[in-house]
Fold:
Amino acid sequence: MATEMVPHTALTLVDQLPAFQILASFLAAPLIVVLGSRRLAWPIAFIASAMSLIVALMLLSQVMDGTVISYRMGGWAPPLGIEYRVDAANAFVLVLVSAISTLILPYARTSFGKEIPLRHHTAFYAAYLLCFSGLLGVTITGDAFNVFVFLEVSSLSTYVLIAMGAERDKRALTAAYDYLIMGTIGATFFVIGIGFLYMATGTLNMADIADRIVEQGGNRTIRAGFAFIVVGIGLKVAMYPLHRWLPNAYTYAPSAVTAFVAATSTKVAVYVLLRFIFSVFQPNFLFEFNTLEYIILPFALIAMFAASFVAIFQSDFKMMLAFSSIAQIGYILLGIAFLTETGVTAAVVHLFNHGITKAALFMAVGAYVFSANGSYYDTIQGLGRRMPLTSAAVVLAGFSLIGVPGTAGFVSKWVLVQAALEKGWWPVALLIVASSLLAVIYVWRVIEVLYLRATPQGCQVREAPASMLVPMWIAVLACIYFGLNTDLTIGAAETAARGLMSGSAGMR
Amino acid sequence: MRHHLILRVITKLLIGTIMLFALYVQFHGDYSPGGGFQAGVIMAVAFIIYGIVFSLDDVQRVLPPWVVHKMAAAGVLIYAGTGVYSLFAGYAFLDYAALSPHHPVHGQHYGILLVELGVGVTVTGVMVTIYYAFTSRTPILDDEAW
Structure:
């Protein structure tokens, strides 16, 4: 037996890309701690993030035509071994996450200089990279349990990142603690759900689970698993009644952390939800249909209005944006609840467009925190002339948040309305437009505070440094670019939606 | 003034045995129950009991906090480094066959030993970090600090 030789064909570096996707940042994190050098921490983090972006773009270009890449961890074949599986849907999310991270790191360097004590800097970049690689891992893996593991890697490091805001505001500690409790409950529900699926199917590989569910049809165990997974991931997504952790966590975290987490973490959770609803479970099961139509759809509509209303009455720019995020997640969930290809396309496009819009807005908030030392409306009033570039970025990104034509936000809302009309649900289409009017109000309040109120006497506030303005404006210009040129986003989202909608066949 | 003579003598006797047992559990883990997680905890116990019976300062003179932090990270590097080696040798990530291409079964043995060593180092580091974090806590913040 020992002499038996297994023929081995060497893998090329291109074959190894799915592993590199995670490894660049996952190796860099302990390396930063072992080196322990404050000066090297940022360059290492940036190189790791940029490498991830390049790998993600290469993967996306390979799968855009609908092919699926499968990578065997440790050489063990699926369904026994852990499989990394890249298709259009997750390659798209991989690009979003690594692009946002690469954009935010140069910004973070300046922003953290002021917000985080120097002794925490190396630990901070290590935690940041762990969070980043966890998010990439959740996205790329094709193994249900591996999703849980990476979800925990990213969540645990997110709690640390949020708690680091305690230097500026001690409430960051309670915010991080709330998120820790809620996030852990979510993760527990998720893993219980996977336990049920494992009980029913005897496998953890997502494609394999899907096949076996088709064979045996729906039964009570699978239904219980579905319920637990939807609630567990719902907590991570901040689906409407499970959103309470989000506003405080976003408001009291350091600015760059908020920008990164807001733009990526909930989006990755939405991707997991999509993957489970469409690929692992079958949309044509009656119970799933009912869940989406009678539970997720109403909650998505409530989120769009309730969270927008709350956002209007905030007195802190950052808190307002946090509530607006909950409303925007409502749009994404609405797209999923339509259960049509156009609906899923809208969800995937909005996931991307909202990601870059919120990244731009939260980076602008960070610039106010940097220069004016706060983001309350009282603190930033009249800064439109003192910080012209930052404020102009707020206006443009705000337009994208509302969905003004010519911005990224318009494209996704347009597709969403189209999906509603396609289904003949015109009241829902009207509600989408009506809730956009609420967005007009809360964005207008900020513009009014910035431009129409008088600057306080003796105001010494200066424009933020270029290292913060450049990433912010790249994100703003991306909002406009993807509003005018929709080939890339809608094209990728359509391929992704088609792959997801074909159910387990899409996993072949 | 030094109390608990018996406790201190017994602890000193035990620490060596505990460490030896940790190493046994670590490196015999692929034949018998055990492995990196268990061994790491047992190894950490040797330091924690020293800290409890003597004092935090004593144990931190043996194992300073910065070393513990580096251990936690270094273990992960050993683990992932094994995978990266196999990756550049033309095998899948963490395919231990790469460690001994002419004898893949031996490769699996070497691989699991290396990877478990990484796990052991990290778990020791993390367990001792948790102990340090709890015992060296500063008093609760006063009302002004909030």
In short: The radius of gyration of chain A is 22 Å.
